[in-house]
Amino acid sequence: MEGWQRAFVLHSRPWSETSLLLDLFSEDAGRVRLIAKGARAKRSMLKGTLQPFTPLLVRWGGRGEVKTLRNAEAVSLALPLSGIPLYSGLYVNELLSRVLEQEISFSELFFDYLYCLQALAGTSGSPEPALRRFELALLGHLGYGVDFLHCAGSGEAVADTMTYRYREEKGFIASLVVDNRSFTGRQLRALYQRDFPDSDTLRAAKRFTRMALKPYLGGKPLKSRELFRQFIPRRSQPAPGETKP
Hints:
The termini are far apart. The chain has a five-stranded mixed barrel. The chain has helices spanning 83-99, 107-122, 128-141, 185-193, 199-217, 223-231, and strands at residues 5-15, 19-26, 30-36, 56-61, 66-74, 163-167, 171-174, 182-184. By secondary structure, it is α+β, with helices and mostly antiparallel strands. α2 runs antiparallel to α3 and α3 (128-141) crosses α5 (199-217).
């Protein structure tokens, strides 16, 4: 199996009449861009294989930013995502496509991604906890370091009932101001533990990850959120990565 890597398709689009341009997330090479020659042809063995959420074994070759897919095999059936979990999975895929540079290894993040997809496929409730855990893992792997357990001003441990205001590049500082950047010590402890026992800590996690991810995403809107709004206009839940008004 030399040269084979575990991977998932993050995104694909037509390339010429019979080929596909793929964004893959692989275990050892991170995000890679490949051309799958002939993958759209009627008799292609790859038809139906190169789909998001399908665990793959792949090989590629070539030089430059865009490589050529040599082989691809499905390890198992695609993870069963539908409805809100499906749009949540598309959101996670778009996050990785937008924030990861090409061909930088994120082996541990690969498994965080796999665990997130498994959680989304197996959930019977809200996908929000799985999304927040993945976003926090992604931030950690990107080198985004923040101390959730200590006041950045005094160095003292956070107190559950105290309010702390988030300041970029500094952390959380005790404050009497209560706004969108304010968090209680209890909420910060939940962020550190990646455990959200109630709606209060879950909403706080969403506020924080949205603020923290914004510099990586820039001003360009996420297409997955627009898709969510288009196909589920009367939803009871906000789009993935979005906060209820």
